[in-house]
Amino acid sequence: MHELQFLNIFNYCFVSPTYLHFDSLCNRYEFQHKNVFRNVTLLIVLVTCSVVSAIAVIAEFMQTSLLSVIGASSIILYTTRFLVMIPLTLWVWLCRHQLISDNNVALNVIQHKHAKFYPMPARRRTLQIYWIQVGSIVILLTAALAGQCITWWEIVVTRKEYFLLNVCALVALEILTLMHRMYIQCWALVIAHHLDELVGFVKNNRVELHLLRAAIVFWEELEFFKQRATSTFRVMNVLHVLDILITCVVETYTIFYVFEMGLSLVDALLNVITLTVYAATFFMFAYAHDLVKVKEAELKDALKSMQYTNLKRQSRDQKDFYDLVNLKLMMESPKITACGLFEINLQIFYNVFAAIITYIVILFQFRGFEKSP
Question: What's its job (predicted)?
């Protein structure tokens, strides 16, 4: 239950409308809405402030460097950030009832597991990793923001309030985007860790037949929840991948541009940290979803090998059960996709990384045309 309680932090980070609450009267846990209006209001205010400041900065670019690659790429970055945050704000409001339903399904699945299989081997030690990831995102980006503001304030040209407001709002939107992506990642890890426990449970040769039947039912319940989660996050998964692609391309090009202008690493500190955080969190996001696929494959292998133990001593009920298991194994497990366009796993990380390199090369080609007389 601790992994579900950890998800409450995303309610305080404005990206989740649900909260796991313990009802002392009924003596049970349940998900409920909390801070929905506050979260949506703050997101709207933050996005509005960011849009206003971004318009002022874009107007400045139009007078100076609209035709330059760095100016155009910055405008694309701002547009992408809003393309993610506006649907995210609507998602928090419009999907609040669907999220409550999905979260309660997950809660019932986990409670069913505890009732049938408890105690199981404690194989999860990831809450510390969750906290480290959240703390690293907030601390690194906040520290980089402070350094960037100090650097910009020392430059007379950028000593303008809307410049500082824009960079502060942009970093705040980045933190919220990263928090939402981590929220999706945590649900994938919850599924993967419970599949991992099932693998260890099935590999125990002394497990009784009725418990194995319950394990198959639990696996089906996990697959059902995975389908619901995929449906809930499908649009946001597409937007997150697009955001990662654009952000990494623009930030990488900006870093090279800063060095080309003869400036130091301190002047590009925010860009370096943003690029590092985005790349690292995207890898963990893809790895968490790939882990679900890996654990499902391990569970299927464990169920297959289980059938060939003590063949001579198997009863008729066991053989009938294994026939049902074979039918289950022949069915393809539902995949976690982004609107059916692509599967979320490590392969998408490699594909996006390759696309980032391609678009960086294209930007440098445009940069070469810009320099040529």
Answer: Gustatory receptor which mediates acceptance or avoidance behavior, depending on its substrates.
Residue identified by tokens 């391609």 is: 358
The residues with which 370 forms a beta bridge, in sequence order, are none
Among 196, 207, 204, 216, which Cα is nearest to 322's? Answer: 216
Neighbours of 323 (CB within 10 A): 11
Q: According to DSSP H, which parts of the chain are helical?
A: 2-6, 9-12, 36-64, 69-94, 96-117, 127-153, 161-202, 209-260, 269-306, 316-330, 346-371
Rounded Cα gap, residues 184 and 236, in angstroms: 9
What digits encode the pLDDT tens for the residues 218-247? Answer: 888 888 999 999 999 989 999 999 999 999
Q: Which of 203, 223, 22 is nearest to 120 (CA)?
A: 203
Of 358, 152, 359, nearest to 268 by C-alpha is 152
Block residue for tokens 């419009």? 94
- Tell me whether residue 355 is exposed, middle or buried, using C-beta atoms within 10 angstroms of its C-beta: 0 to 12, 13 to 18, 19 or more: middle
Closest CA to 100 of 213, 194, 6, 11: 11
* pLDDT tens sequence across 40-90: 998 898 888 888 888 877 777 666 655 577 778 888 888 888 888 888 888
Evaluate if pTM is beyond 0.90: no
From the list 43, 50, 54, the residue with the least C-alpha distance to 90 is: 43
Calpha distance 113→107 (Å, rounded): 10
Q: How far is Cα 191 from Cα 106, in angstroms, rounded to an integer?
A: 9
Strand-pairing partners, residue 17, are: none
Q: How far apart are CA 349 and CA 355, in angstroms?
A: 10
